């Protein structure tokens, strides 16, 4: 793999685009750190997710770099760690929303659910990330990262990383477990009131991520373009999360500042959903803070309804791009 290869240029361009977009979103969030939209998104977890996105896009460079002990070590480290940052935070978010809704269904709320504070959420996320770090460290000890010579044919030799299928499956296996759990909680909270739109966005993010990885697995293990396939899958996963989770919030902050006030985050007993009204089971006097809820906006609802269509479009685009890159390998 050379830096001047067409497939490498495509992967680097996508990674740079995603990195730049993430920098822009991070700057907007930091600039408006004390506004209701940012607070409602559980800003501590949002920043952890963005750090994971940075690592996702940054993983493209060591993956495309000439194989060496350093580049192979970093390429074994970054993808699994980046995904654990993103999906551990998303799992913590969805679990929190699910517990809030479970508590709101009780007729008498005797006490507030435990571990609901921002500090507790960060600690839970860091514990999940620690599990991933332990798996990566164990695999690096069992199979030290280095380069080796591969012979695809008697007349051809290549220098590649000595990464085995187990070295890929073990770190990404825990990430897939986090993705699966996020998807389960997203399905459980799919019929939440509009005040809980954050759960819908997380749900569509996970559905689209599953589509990407359904395309990744057969292509990665069934073709010779493993490096490009990994680069594109990692970058697309981060871009999907950025677009679906953060772009609607950026739109509210920059173009609809009148929506960025506390009145749009208060909860009522009757809340407007996609069609008509429904009783949410969460009262004004609920013990849950407004940071547990998302923006109530017709544009937000419209964006939610586009999730399945976006998933299908991205799936077809991903397959076409994988095929295009394989043709030039």
From TrEMBL:
Residues in domain G-protein coupled receptors family 3 profile? Answer: 7-269
The protein's location, in the record's own words, is: Cell membrane
Tell me what topology the record assigns in the membrane: Multi-pass membrane protein
Instruction: State the UniProt keywords alphabetically.
Output: Cell membrane, G-protein coupled receptor, Glycoprotein, Membrane, Receptor, Transducer, Transmembrane, Transmembrane helix
What is the top-level taxon of the source organism? Answer: Eukaryota
Chain segments annotated as transmembrane: 6-30, 45-65, 77-94, 115-142, 166-187, 199-221, 227-254, 300-324
Report the InterPro entries cross-referenced here: GPCR_3, GPCR_3_C, GPCR_3_CS, GPCR_3_mtglu_rcpt, mGluR
- By what name is this protein known? GRM1
């Amino acid at each position: 793999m050379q830096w001047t290869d067409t497939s490498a240029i495509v992967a680097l361009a996508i990674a740079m685009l995603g990195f730049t977009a993430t920098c822009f979103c991070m700057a907007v969030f930091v600039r408006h750190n004390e506004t209701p939209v940012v607070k409602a998104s559980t800003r501590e977890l949002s920043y952890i997710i963005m750090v994971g996105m940075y690592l996702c896009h940054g993983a493209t460079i060591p993956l495309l770099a000439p194989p060496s002990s350093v580049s192979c070590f970093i390429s074994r480290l970054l993808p699994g760690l980046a995904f654990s940052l993103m999906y551990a935070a998303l799992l913590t978010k969805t679990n929190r929303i699910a517990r809030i809704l479970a508590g709101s269904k009780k007729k008498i709320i005797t006490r507030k659910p435990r571990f609901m504070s921002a500090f507790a959420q960060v600690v839970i996320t860091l514990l999940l990330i620690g599990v991933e770090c332990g798996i990566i460290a164990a695999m690096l000890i069992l199979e030290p990262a280095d380069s080796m010579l591969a012979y695809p044919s008697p007349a051809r030799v290549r220098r590649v990383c000595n990464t085995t299928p187990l070295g890929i499956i073990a770190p990404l296996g825990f990430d897939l477990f986090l993705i699966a759990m996020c998807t389960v909680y997203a399905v459980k909270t799919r019929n939440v009131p509009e005040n809980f739109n954050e759960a819908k966005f997380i749900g569509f993010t996970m559905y689209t991520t599953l589509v990407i990885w359904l395309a990744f697995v057969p292509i990665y293990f069934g073709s010779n373009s493993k490096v490009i396939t990994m680069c594109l899958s990692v970058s697309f996963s981060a871009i999907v999360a950025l677009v679906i989770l953060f772009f609607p919030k950026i739109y509210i902050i920059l173009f609809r500042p009148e929506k960025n006030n506390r009145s749009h985050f208060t909860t009522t007993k009757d809340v407007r959903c996609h069609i008509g009204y429904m009783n949410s089971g969460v009262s004004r006097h609920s013990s849950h803070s407004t940071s547990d809820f998302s923006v109530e906006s017709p544009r937000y609802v419209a964006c939610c309804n586009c999730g399945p269509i976006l998933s299908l479009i991205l799936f077809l685009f991903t397959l076409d791009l994988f095929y295009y890159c394989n043709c030039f390998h």
